[in-house]
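Continuing the batch. This is chain 6 of the set; chains 1 through 5 are on the previous pages. Same settings as before, nothing changed between runs. Recording input and output for traceability.
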Amino acid sequence: MRPMRHQLFRHDPPEIGAHLQKTSAEEDTVFHRGDDAVTEEHSLDESLLVEPESRRRPWREFLVSTPGRLSVLGIALVTAALVTGAITSAAIGARQQRIETLRTHTEPLTYAAERLYSSLSIADAAAATSFISGGVEPIAVRNRYNQAIGDASNALVTASNGVASTDAAALALLSEVSRNLADYTSLIATARANNRSGNPVGVAYLSDASAMMQDTILPAAESLYSEQSRSVADTQVLTGRLPRAAFAVAVALLVALVLAQVYLARKSKRRVNPGLVLASLLAATLLIWLAAATLVSTAATDRARTEGAQPLGTITQARILAQQARADETLALLQRGSDEQSEVDYARRSAELADILGGLQDGDHGPATTPPIDAAVTALADWRRAHTMLQEKLDVGDYPGAKAIAIGPADLASPATFAALDESLQDGIDRFRSEELDGMADAYRSLSLLAVGSMVIGVLCGFAVGGGIWPRLNEYH
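Output for chain 6:
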C-alpha cells in the first residue's frame, strides 16, 4: 500500500512543491521481494556533529580526585615520618660516635702525651739532681730517674698505639722522641759513670744530655701534646653543636601533620582525625625529646670543656714549667752559679708558673679555686723562697750550704717544696681530667636512648598516619 502523497494546491509556493516532488521521488525508491518491501534507511554519525573529547590518563584522573589526593597525602606523611626518624637517629648516632671516640681514643692519647712530657722532664731534673751529691747518687734520686724513664717509655708506647697510621706529623714526632730518648739515656749513663769515677767531664756529658732534652726531646713531646689537645678541643666544639638537620626535619614533620589535619577537617567535615592527632603527638614528643637531650648533652660537653679540658691544659702547662724550672735550678747549681742563662730561665719560668696558678685561682682559665691549686700556690711560694736562699749561698761562695738546700731533707729545702708543688699539680691534673671524663660520660648517656627511640617514634608515627588516612579512603569505595 503506497503512502498518500501530498497534493499540490494552487496556493502552495513553488519551492515547497519542488521539495515535495523530490521527497516523493525518494519514497518511490523501494525494492520488492515477494510481498515484503525493504526501504533504505539512513543512520546519523554523531562523530560528525560532536568533537572528540580529549581523554585523560587514568593515573592523572586518580590524582586529581579526592581519593588520589588522600593517598598521596598519606604516602608523603608516612615517608616524612620514616625519614625524620632515620635522620634524627643518624645525627644522634654520629654525635655519640664522636663522643665515644673522644672518650676512648683522643683524650687518652692526649693524656699519654702529657705523661710523656712530664716524665721526660722529671727524668731530666732527677738526672741533674743526682750529680749534686757527687760520687754515687742517692738511691731515692736514682729510683726517681729510673721510674721517670720507665713512665716515659710506657707513655711513648701508649701514644704510638693510639696515633692513627695516617697521622704523619704525630708519627714523626713520636719517632723523634723515641730515637733521641735512646741517645739521651746513653749520655746520662756515660755522665754517671764519669761522675762515680770523679771525672769532671761527667758534668759536660750531663749538660749535653740536658741540652738534648730541653732543645729536642721536650719540644717534640710538647708539640705532640699540643696537637692532641687541639684535637680534643676541636672535637668538643663539634660535639657541642646542635644537630640542625634533625631539628629541621622534626619541625617540618610536625607542621605537615598539623596542615594535613586542617585539610582533612575541611574535606571530611570532621574536626578531629585520631590517627593524625596521635602522629602529631608522637612528632611533638620526638621534637621535645630531641631538644632536651641535645641541651643536656651540649651542657655536659661545655662543662667538660670549661671545667675539665681548658683548666687541664693550663695546669699541665704549669707542671711542665715547674719541671723545666727545677732542671734550670739544678744545672745552675752544678755550674756553681757560673751559668747565668740557667738562672735567667728559672726566673722566667717560675714567674710564668706563678701567673698561671694565679689565673687558675681567679678562675681565668676555668672554674674557681680548687684545693690542689691553693696547695700548689703555697708550695710554689715555699720553693721560690728556698731557691732565693740557694742563690744567696752561691753568691757568697757557700757551695756546701747551697747544696744542702738543693738536695737536703729539710722541709723548707728545694726537694721537699718542689715535691709538694709537683704533687699538688698532679692532683689538679687528675681532678680536672676527672671533670672532663665525667662531662663526656654525661654527654654520651644523655643521648643513649634517643638514637633508637627516634627511629621507633618515626615508625609508630608512620603507622598512626596510615591509621588516620585509611578510614577516609574507605569512604570513597
